[in-house]
């Protein structure tokens, strides 16, 4: 861990972030970070406990003179997205994040940084540890498994928290105050297939799509970024249509909430088409790279000869798969009719796996409108069921309906305007914040979301602005001093 991170201002925030980033904390593998957080609270002499699902709650009394203010819940999630570049040697299960300073940015070496939501968690830790900051009574809520199911928020029971105001610290642009978000649902398509022997006179090829930016499948879905699974499918479609290409394996993408950056496939072609196939593929590669030259300048597509695989997919199933993936919606499905420039509904074809006689396709469908979410999920379901897949819709969670009359919103708007000489952007986002779920358990709680500027979340290009962290910390401190009276 570089000492230069710990020397950044505000030191309380960055030191807690460095402490947190030394602890492996993948979604659904939060055991170590849960124990870390419990020990942190207990060492401060604060009331610290787990709920039934293993969210951690730490309570701190109000400072002198602030006892008449409303109790606040400061909330962040403990888990982080684990993504790394293919050429990065890193074990997320045993290693802490290797951070460094690059100008105004804090980055990680070849992996995700964990600023989502580590900077929010570190903020709460710094406030809990402080001895000279004015604040009302605080309930710190550290949820688990936000990134792959929001099971921590879903499992939190009503009645545990006493706070009247919730500050969610998981927004990623420092000039925005979030008052609404999208809900989501997982769409998973699976089926088995028969394998066939490789015909005589075949040539094996490995196709690799890499160098894409990736990113957050909600916040970045409108940016026109490349999806490795869709790009790979274009190559497979053309090879099959024109040269009888047959697929042995596909391994593309990973987590549902990350736009896929890489895909690898093993295929065969009849040697009689060898030269023509390579010529045709190069033309298609040139077209694709030209299409993405602005948004994906580092896109690389490689087609190289490889050893013949042991077997290939049944041709009938293969044709259905390739056509279904071509037809399946990826990216923005509908823009909001009510909020300018807000994506209402989208889908991310996050994972495509074909190997050992099994197909698995994983999508994450998001929408701020429940009926539109289910409309797109059913469209995807129908597409994959037409090729004989079993389709499961799971992990559905609600969106967060904006409250334009929020009392805490007015407090934050006034403070931001005073500090920065301009009004903040009051927005709803296309990401899946936990506020919508928490609101089902605590319907009377006034909720708001804000945070420092973080770019490239859910990808190895994730980076946090140092200057923004300083602006954000100043904002947090004045918010704590101006929480309304009971």
UniProtKB/TrEMBL annotation:
<dbReference type="GO" id="GO:0006508">
    <property type="term" value="P:proteolysis"/>
</dbReference>
<protein>
    <recommendedName>
        <fullName>Cytosol non-specific dipeptidase</fullName>
        <ecNumber>3.4.13.18</ecNumber>
    </recommendedName>
</protein>
<dbReference type="InterPro" id="IPR001160">
    <property type="entry name" value="Peptidase_M20C"/>
</dbReference>
<dbReference type="InterPro" id="IPR011650">
    <property type="entry name" value="Peptidase_M20_dimer"/>
</dbReference>
<keyword id="KW-0378">Hydrolase</keyword>
<feature type="domain" description="Peptidase M20 dimerisation">
    <location>
        <begin position="208"/>
        <end position="296"/>
    </location>
</feature>
<comment type="similarity">
    <text>Belongs to the peptidase M20C family.</text>
</comment>
<dbReference type="GO" id="GO:0005829">
    <property type="term" value="C:cytosol"/>
</dbReference>
<dbReference type="GO" id="GO:0046872">
    <property type="term" value="F:metal ion binding"/>
</dbReference>
<keyword id="KW-0482">Metalloprotease</keyword>
<dbReference type="InterPro" id="IPR002933">
    <property type="entry name" value="Peptidase_M20"/>
</dbReference>
<dbReference type="GO" id="GO:0070573">
    <property type="term" value="F:metallodipeptidase activity"/>
</dbReference>
<dbReference type="Pfam" id="PF07687">
    <property type="entry name" value="M20_dimer"/>
</dbReference>
<keyword id="KW-0479">Metal-binding</keyword>
<keyword id="KW-0645">Protease</keyword>
<keyword id="KW-0170">Cobalt</keyword>
<dbReference type="Pfam" id="PF01546">
    <property type="entry name" value="Peptidase_M20"/>
</dbReference>
<keyword id="KW-0862">Zinc</keyword>
């Amino acid at each position: 861990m570089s000492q230069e991170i710990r020397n950044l201002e505000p030191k309380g925030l960055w030191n807690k972030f460095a402490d947190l980033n030394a602890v492996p904390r993948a979604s659904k593998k939060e055991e170590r970070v849960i124990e870390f957080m419990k020990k942190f609270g207990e060492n401060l002499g604060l009331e610290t406990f787990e709920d039934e699902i293993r969210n951690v709650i730490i309570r701190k009394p109000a400072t002198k003179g602030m006892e008449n203010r409303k109790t606040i819940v400061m909330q962040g999630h403990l888990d982080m997205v684990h993504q790394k570049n293919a050429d990065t040697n890193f074990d997320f299960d045993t290693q802490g994040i290797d951070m460094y300073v690059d100008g105004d940015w804090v980055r990680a070496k070849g992996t995700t940084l964990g600023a989502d939501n580590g900077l929010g968690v570190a903020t709460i830790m710094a406030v809990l540890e402080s001895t000279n900051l004015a604040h009302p009574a605080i309930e710190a809520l550290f949820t688990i498994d936000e990134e792959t199911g929001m099971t921590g928020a879903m499992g939190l029971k009503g009645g545990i928290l006493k706070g009247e105001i919730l500050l969610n610290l998981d927004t990623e642009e420092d000039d925005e105050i979030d008052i609404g978000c999208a809900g989501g649902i997982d769409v998973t398509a699976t089926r088995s297939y028969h394998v066939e022997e490789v015909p005589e006179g075949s040539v094996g090829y490995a196709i690799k799509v890499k160098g894409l930016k990736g990113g957050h499948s909600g916040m970045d879905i409108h940016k026109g970024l490349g999806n490795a699974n869709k790009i790979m499918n274009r190559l497979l479609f053309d090879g099959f249509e024109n040269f009888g290409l047959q697929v042995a394996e596909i391994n593309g993408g990973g987590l549902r909430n990350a736009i896929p950056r890489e895909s690898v496939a093993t295929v065969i072609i009849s040697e009689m088409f060898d030269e023509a196939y390579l010529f045709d593929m190069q033309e298609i590669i040139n077209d694709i790279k030209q299409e993405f030259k602005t948004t994906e300048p580092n896109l690389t597509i490689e087609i190289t000869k490889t050893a013949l695989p042991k077997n290939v997919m049944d041709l009938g199933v293969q044709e259905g798969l390739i056509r279904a993936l071509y037809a399946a919606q990826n990216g923005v499905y509908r823009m909001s009719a009510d909020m300018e420039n807000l994506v209402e509904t989208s889908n991310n074809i996050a994972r495509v796996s074909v190997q050992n006689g099994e197909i698995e396709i994983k999508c994450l469908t998001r929408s701020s409108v429940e009926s539109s979410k289910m409309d797109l999920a059913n469209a995807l379901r129908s597409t994959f069921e037409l090729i004989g897949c079993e389709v499961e819709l799971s992990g559905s969670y609600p969106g967060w309906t904006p409250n334009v009359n929020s009392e805490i919103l007015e407090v934050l708007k006034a403070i931001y305007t005073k500090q920065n000489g301009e009004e903040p952007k009051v927005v709803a986002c296309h990401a899946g914040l936990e506020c919508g779920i928490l609101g089902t358990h605590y319907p009377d709680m006034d909720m708001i979301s804000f945070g420092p500027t973080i770019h490239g979340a859910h990808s190895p290009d994730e980076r946090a602005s140092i200057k923004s962290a300083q602006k954000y910390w100043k904002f947090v401190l004045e918010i704590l001093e101006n929480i309304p009276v009971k």
